[in-house]
Predict the structure.
Amino acid sequence: MIAHEIDYEIHGEEMQYVEIELDPQEGVVAESGSFMMMENGLEMSTIFGDGSNQSEGVLGKLFSAGKRLLTGESLFMTVFSNVSQQKRKVSFASPYPGSIIPINLAEKDGKFICQKDAFLCAAKGVSIGIEFSRKLGRGFFGGEGFIMQKLEGDGMAFVHTGGTVCKKVLTVGETLKVDTGCLVGFSQTVNYDIEFVGGIKNTVFGGEGLFFATLQGPGTVYIQSLPFSRLASRVIAAIPRTGNNKGEGSILGGLGDLLDGDNRF
């Protein structure tokens, strides 16, 4: 498997986007909804799956699309190809505040495992597949279920995280405990499992969940400071239960809503 060689630059701090430069005849495959902008001379096409099995006929395309269904993603992906005779640029944006991580699969022995919704885009030729958990405990309590996403090939891939990203390089036998929702991805040499927090008070009153994700080196692990699920739960908790609540936190409180004329009877 030989993926297209692409150049890139990541812009921004809290809301990042990646700008990819394509030589003539080069292409990049992206998740639906991640496109931001592109220069003239680029051609956009929708494909089944990730495009890695397109030469294997109808069955190859169906297998590629089926893998994406299992990870909860769309059946289709978008390919952006440079059909001009000059270098052209295309950009993809992160869907929520956080960071974009460039992953050189050639430096990860051709495989990187990540959470199901982390993939953003990759050089054409990179395979976006599924990684089944072989351990029941990890599948039930690991936060990502039995299925994670795997990126395979020898090209560049980009994944996005929530909040600030932390990169940890584990030595042989070194273990790191992580909140299951904060785990973004890891190289294939890392041994991933889950561990019960333990203790009655920790279990009942800790508020941090019942399980840790344990990762044992050697290999590289990426952790995010703000999982989207945690952000979404805080937003939902802050939504007023009844009506318009613009007076919340003021001295007048609910009386302010009556005075501003917005309440409907």
About this structure: The chain has five helices and 19 strands. The first strand starts at residue 7 and ends at 11. Residues 57-70 form the longest helix (14 residues). Helices lie at 57-70, 136-141, 200-205, 228-238, 254-259.
